[in-house]
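Weekly puzzle thread! Below is a chain. First person to post its structure in token form gets bragging rights.
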Amino acid sequence: MAHWIKHPSELEARHQQRPARIGLDTEFIRERTYWPQLALVQMAVNDEILLIDPLIPGMTDALRPWLEDTAILKVMHSASEDLVAFKCACGALPRPLFDTQIGAALAGIGGGMGYQKLVAEITGTTLPKGETRSDWMRRPLSPAQLEYAADDVEYLFALHDAIDRRLHELGRQAWMQDDAQRLLAGVDNDEGERWPHLSMRAAQFLDTDAQRRLLRLLRWRDQQARQSDKPRSWILDNELAATLARTPPTDHDALLRLFERFPKAPRKLSQAVWQTLQTPLPDEDQAPQPLPATDANKAAIKRLQDAVARHGSELGLPDGLLASRKHLEALLQNGDWPAPLAGWRRQQLEPLLRPLLAKPESTR
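Winning reply:
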């Protein structure tokens, strides 16, 4: 039976019990904002499920000690966006963290598994999916919403027990801790991606000057989205950003004429867009360029991907868990190991990939 927490003092009193672990999940709204709006927190404590209303004054303050208490393990599933919601609402992140989606992948159970699928795989229980698109900001929440919310934490301890046991058998508990720490650090130190143009496929086909213009636009867009709390695409969509970078307008009037071809163009921000296009960034000459799409590079990436896939299969890991194409491209291009490939991944991959990276310069 789930218990609705109506006052911060109820949460504070339960914290005095100091359980060894809790299960955590959130419901949030992010459709019209950059930052997630925390709407509900579900917490499994011993044999009790607490439904916590963060909209009640003082409730996020009462939540903070739970999140910061390092003596309490926080068990969550696919926690990345929940972590951002906690950081925004409570100013704290749940440490230490055990993410059952990450753990299931490392244990060889399955990669990127949703909560319902993982619960069915481990416990044999089939959960309904009926309230995934509910309005979680409304009050009161419906009985169906409350039941769905409680289900999201009811089986976390069973998942944790099964996955942790498997990780122990495989000697991969340190891998789990490494990945959880990296996830937390990524949220804690999020100041925006330094080189966002590398994630856009269109950047591969732009010359150096155009790539720098694209970098200026994407950094400006991210800053504007954060400050205005609006989705990035509402500020400037990718297609328009790439068009402006490829063929920059000659003056502000030409920019406005170009905007007429794009219904969602940010006309009210046209002056800011024009200024951004014209203003070099202090570090843009350091910006790495996307790996050129040459036949030699494609072949080199294919060799790296095949080697990683074979090793991942030998370890019983899901495809893509060891290294993504994006990170392999960065490794091939400059020889430096990207941060996401540090730790246990580098230990596994470096002996394997070093011979493949030692190629003539023409293949890079």
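Puzzle host: Confirmed. Bonus trivia for everyone else. The longest strand covers residues 21-29.
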